[in-house]
Amino acid sequence: MSLLHFQLTPAGENALMLYFDQRIDPQISALVQQACVLIRNELTDDLIDLLPSYASVLILFNPLSTDLHRVSAQLQHSLKHLQSGNSQTGNTIELPVYYSEESGPDLALIAKTKNISITEVIQRHQALSYRVYAIGFAPGFAYLGEVDPLLQMPRLATPRAKVPRGAVAIADRQTAVYPAQSPGGWNLIGLCPTRMFNPDSTPVMPVAVGDEVRFVAIDKAEFLRLGGEIPGDER
């Protein structure tokens, strides 16, 4: 039997929130993924949806076939089988990135702030694997962590009105790829040609919570060949 701590809290007439220790941690993220598997197996057709995040899961169930008390009792029993262990629970996904001052208008700022070269910024960003901790803000916006401590940068004091689709960015301990043009205050370091959200594809997103992402540098010609587009200067 697991001795891991978790909490189930009502979140509406047909919803429960499952909480683990509230911190960004690969082991906690692995527990979130393990819990999702147990919940799907336990609730089967009574389950409407699961929304995992850094250290929690929102559970939506069908109120026409079950109720809050029954689901809570089922999950309290099922989640006792949670076990700590390997933090790697998903797939490893490679995402190509065209790193340059043309495609990453904040590369020079990061290099200057950290007293390193632009080349080192690029090398350090692609040297690590990043866990998908959550997907939110916009469909396909995956919060990836954790960034090399030397590359950690605060959000911009004044967010951009338009960040292009595919922009690869850093904010604090996290990195991400913007799935669509939108406002944003993260530091932009490159462009990724991979569509992070496409409702006409199966699956609609190339990554899921629990996956590991590795960024791979490509040149401008390869970026354009893969369908990438160079936007106007958004600085």
From TrEMBL:
Record bears the keyword Hydrolase: yes
GO molecular function: 5-oxoprolinase (ATP-hydrolyzing) activity
Coiled-coil residue windows: none
Enzyme class: hydrolase
EC number: 3.5.2.9
Domain Carboxyltransferase as annotated: residue spans: 6-207
Tree of life domain: Bacteria
UniProt entry keywords in alphabetical sequence: ATP-binding, Hydrolase, Nucleotide-binding
InterPro entries (alphabetical): CT_C_D (IPR003833), Cyclophilin-like_dom_sf (IPR029000), PxpB (IPR010016)
UniProt-listed PANTHER family: 5-OXOPROLINASE SUBUNIT B
Annotated protein name in UniProt: 5-oxoprolinase subunit PxpB
Species of origin: Rheinheimera baltica
